[in-house]
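Input record (Table S2, row 255):
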Amino acid sequence: MSLDITYARDLVAQASSIVVLTGAGVSAESGVPTFRGPGSLWKSHRPEELATPEAFARDPRLVWEWYAWRRSLVADCAPNPAHECLARLALDHESTRLVTQNVDGLHHRAADSVAADHEDPSRAYPLEVHGAIHRDRCSGCDRRTPGRNDIEASSTDSLPHCENCQSLLRPDVVWFGEALDSTIINDSFEAARSADLCLVIGTSAVVYPAASVPEITLDSGGTVIEVNPQETHLSPRSSVSLKGRAGEVLPDILD
Ligand code: BV8
Ligand code: ZN
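Output record (BV8 complex):
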């Protein structure tokens, strides 16, 4: 076992409070493309083009076409050992908080299977700071409903509308330029402040305010373990920067 893995295992074992921030990299081994870097999801579209309220106002059909494609792609993917390890960590280690930037719902699906017969399964579920792609939200009355997998985005007329107020539905995700849910992000920051260890898994840590989570732990005197095949701006501030894939490294440091 490498010195880094041993050191990371010791940091986890000694931690009294852990906050975990995951990004698209934790789902890469499940087959969900990441956002930046090789084979990324944004390749065919620039994020500003589609993941913004302006894009939705300008061309709701194109935005829905992209999200319907992503929703069905994600529905065919399954959680990988990284999601399962993190759910188990949260169940076994009482003061662990999972925070994810991902909207793919794979942490939830891992928790559903890992936490099934646990006395407090809620601990295994993450704070989803950017929302959830499989949920719809009404652009008029904000009503949230389970997302449909059969969105017909060939014309604007066939797009889904709210049964309550007839306004256009949208995917229940946070777009660029939109505020995050204040309770969710404040709970994430509170977890980061009280954590003495932050695990940063599979994120380029460029999207704020989510990327503040590890910085808040560091500024509160805590330590960071990073798991990412690539170097990020957090790597130099991490006590351990494990250059590997989440599905392979996390079982080594958490199980
Ligand atoms: C806000 C949901 C204010 C939608 C997403 C300039 C102009 C405009 C805006 C800004 C600006 N400067 C700053 C901003 C703010 C902006 C921002 O931070 N922009 C960045 C890009 C500069 N932030 C916002 O707009 C936020 N809102 O600030 O509002 C406000 C306040 C009050 C009132 C009104 C407004 C909202 C941000 C949320 C945007 N929504 N997603 C959707 O998914 O369609 S963000 C999107 O990026 C995803 O959620 C994703 O999770 C997130 C972060 O990306 P990562 O997860 O890190 O993914 P990435 O591909 O980048 O990296 C993957 C990593 O994994 C890589 O490092 C790779 O090496 C690694 N990896 C690969 N394989 C593996 C692996 N690691 C481990 N194992 C592997 N196998
Ligand atoms: Zn409505």
